[in-house]
C-alpha cells in the first residue's frame, strides 16, 4: 500500500498498530471535506496507473520478455 500512497497528497499513512495515529487520521478526514476531495481527485491517476488495463499490459510485456529469454 505504501507504494500507492503519497503522504498528504492522496492519503495518510499511519504507523502499524498505532491506534492513536489511526484515530487522528480518521478524525482529520472526517472533519476536512476539502482534504477528502483532494485525496479523491489525486487518486484518479493512481487508479488509472494501477487499473486492469495497465497492469494487464505490464504482465503481457513481462511474459513476452521471459518467453524470449527462455528460447
Protein described:
- With 71 residues, the chain is mainly alpha-helical.
- Helix content is 69%, strand content 0%.
- The longest helix is centred in the C-terminal third of the chain and has 19 residues.
- The protein is elongated.
Uncertain regions spanning at least 5 consecutive residues: none
Shape: elongated
Task: Sketch the topology as an H/E string, one letter per element.
Answer: HHH
Rg result: 18 Å
What is the helix content?
55-70%
Could you report the average pLDDT, rounded to the nearest whole number? 90
The largest pleated sheet is described as:
none
User: Number of helix segments?
Assistant: 3
User: Between the first and last Cα atoms, what is the distance in angstroms?
Assistant: 36 Å
What percent strand? under 5%
Instruction: Please provide the count of β strands.
Output: 0
Structural class: mainly alpha
What's a quick, concise take on this entry?
The protein is 69% helix and 0% strand. The protein has 71 residues and is an all-alpha fold. The N and C termini lie far apart (36 Å).
How is the secondary structure organized here?
Layout: H1 19-31, H2 33-49, H3 52-70
Supply the key terms.
3 helices, 0% strand, 71 residues
Amino acid at each position: 500500500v505504501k507504494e500507492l500512497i503519497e503522504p498528504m497528497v492522496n492519503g495518510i499513512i499511519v504507523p502499524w498498530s498505532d491506534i492513536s495515529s489511526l484515530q487522528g487520521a480518521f478524525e482529520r478526514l472526517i472533519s476536512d471535506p476539502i482534504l477528502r476531495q483532494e485525496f479523491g481527485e489525486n487518486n484518479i491517476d493512481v487508479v488509472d496507473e494501477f487499473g486492469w488495463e495497465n497492469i494487464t499490459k505490464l504482465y503481457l510485456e513481462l511474459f513476452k520478455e521471459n518467453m524470449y529469454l527462455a528460447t
